[in-house]
Amino acid sequence: MELIEIFGYIGALIVGVTLGLMGGGGSIIAIPILTYLFHINPITTTAYSLFVVGTSSSIGTLNNWKKGLIEYKLAVVFAIPAFLAVYVVRKYLMPLIPMEIITVNDFVITKDIAIMVFFAVIMIFSATSMIKKKKIIESNYNPIHHNYLLIVIIGIIIGLLTGVIGIGGGFIIIPALVLLLKIEMKKAVATTLFIIAIKSLVGFLGDLGNTEINWGFLLIFTTISISGIFFGHYLSSYIKGSNLKKSFGWMVLFIAFAILYIELF
């Protein structure tokens, strides 16, 4: 095993620790690790990320289910358009994108480059929100009539993003549930994890038949990540994930600019 692969498996552990500490952010780390440390092409990387994030989120969902924190009706209304969108993107739209999209001054923008650049842009938005936003203020969480049309629209948008770049989308879903739909924070986080688990695994199913899966490697990477989740849960007793969010945001921002440099220069 090469040294860079050892760092990659350490990265798999960090993916899990991040999920355990913060309840999200795993895919933002997983995709660069799979792409640049294991030299897996971005199409396959996004598929692997869906499996890793979906499986890992399922572990957290079981715990939240026992605590009764999941808003199932809201989750189903949100998840159905989300996983339909991600399945259609992974199964039908992604294979239609040509490997060479456009050539600019002898620089060929390939499908792989386009995916990683788009991913980096999303990372920048995510990092900015983590660095600037101190806390989502919880107030006036009285039962209200949910705007289900808005839920469906948000679900489709999240599904499209997940389908293209393989992210869980928790940094978008949680604010949407809290600020737009007035869901209590703890229930929003739990419901988000449930939604991510469903749509990520359904999205991965859309890759079966289109993408060659190295199951041996994927299961090892996922198992290490899951062990990291339990370690992260242990650390969360001593370290608050909210205190790490700003530092994590700066790290994500650095990785995003590194990806842009690697892909474009």
From TrEMBL:
It is a multi-pass membrane protein. The lineage of its organism: Bacteria, Pseudomonadati, Bacteroidota, Flavobacteriia, Flavobacteriales. Signal peptide: none annotated. This is Probable membrane transporter protein. It is found in: Cell membrane; Membrane. The chain crosses the membrane at residues 6-38, 74-93, 113-131, 151-181, 188-209, 215-235, 247-264. It holds the Pfam family TauE. Keywords: Cell membrane, Membrane, Transmembrane, Transmembrane helix. GO terms for cellular component: plasma membrane. It comes from the Bacteria. InterPro entries: TM_pro_TauE-like, TSUP/Inactive_protease-like. Belongs to the 4-toluene sulfonate uptake permease (TSUP) (TC 2.A.102) family.
